[in-house]
Design a protein that fits this description.
The protein is α+β, with helices and mostly antiparallel strands and about 300 residues long. It has six helices and 18 strands.
């Protein structure tokens, strides 16, 4: 399809997505835009309407595996970065890094968001995935979610009226873009110490110096995906340029030359071995989009 004569100035064509994903793999976006205001986002939504192209929202690009080659879609890097503390509520843009949010709030003497520390995602992505750690998740502190749909209609949802689950939310299937949220916090003079402890534990246990996408598989009920993979001696297993991390078996590391196809093959291989040897069917936490992987529903949302 040819490019329309009208295109917002922030939209660019044929942009490599590798720099925008934490795995450092992925193809070329037909269209790409980085939005830092709601007006920017509205402009891109209007552009999408003229093309009827798929829209894909990128935050930090974690928890995500994009296909190789030319990807016929509009990719939007969400950088809406408002952040305002009002009593025991914090209003925050969907593009804010949740680790930064955790640090900012705890240093002001407020608790409740320490579990976000070290998570490589944005507010919007963490809401969409109901990301969590340290026995807490995004939904547990969420009060309000504000979205705009593909026709430009803005909505505000009270979190208590929404149905969240383990690493899932209603926004996985909505044609709406999260642009803002409100979280509940509380006074806690120990919040910063708690946050630093959580961050240290995460840095000690997970590979942060190499490209990964975070946890590849969901934890089976009553079990740990990483411990299962480790117990089968699969740490270090390698296909092409990707390998199972020696530090944490539920992370795949890009050793420098990985392709999306390498990662898909390693995911299939690990799932097969775990199923064969334990009978447990691992479910993906990482999201393959614009790929040939069809074992789980694909959707258009990234962290």
């Amino acid at each position: 399809m040819s490019t329309p004569s009208w295109m917002p100035s922030i939209v660019r064509e044929n942009i490599s997505l590798k720099p925008y994903t934490t795995l450092k793999v992925g193809g070329t976006a037909r269209y790409f835009a980085s939005v830092s205001t709601l007006e920017d986002l509205k402009g891109v939504l209007g552009f999408r309407k003229t093309l009827n192209y798929p829209l894909f929202i990128l935050g930090k690009g974690s928890n995500l595996l994009l296909g190789d080659g030319q990807l016929e879609a509009i990719f939007v890097q969400n950088k809406l970065n408002a952040l305002q503390l009002d009593g025991e509520k914090v209003r925050v843009g969907a593009g804010v890094n949740v680790s930064y949010l955790s640090q900012k709030v705890s240093k002001m003497g407020y608790g409740g968001l320490e579990f976000f520390s070290g998570i490589p995602g944005t507010v919007g992505g963490c809401i969409a995935m109901n990301a969590g750690a340290s026995k807490a998740d995004t939904a547990s502190r969420l009060l309000v979610v504000k979205t705009i749909d593909y026709d430009g209609i803005e909505r505000a949802y009270e979190a208590k009226t929404l149905e969240f689950g383990y690493r899932t939310s209603p926004f996985r299937s909505k044609n709406e873009v999260i642009y803002e949220a409100v979280f509940s916090v509380f006074k806690d003079g120990e919040a910063e110490n708690k946050r630093q402890t959580i961050l240290k534990n995460r840095l000690d246990a997970q590979p942060y110096t190499v490209p990964t996408a975070g946890c590849v598989f969901k934890n089976p009920e009553g079990n740990s995906a990483g411990q299962l993979i480790d117990s089968l001696g699969l740490k270090g297993r390698k296909i092409g340029g990707v390998q199972v991390s020696m530090k944490h078996a539920n992370f795949f590391e890009n050793t420098g030359t990985a392709t999306t196809q390498d990662i898909l093959e390693l995911m299939r291989n690990i799932r097969y071995e775990v199923k064969k040897q334990t009978g447990i069917e691992l479910e993906l936490e990482i999201i393959p989009c614009f790929t040939t992987y069809t074992h789980i529903p694909q959707h258009l949302m990234g962290n």
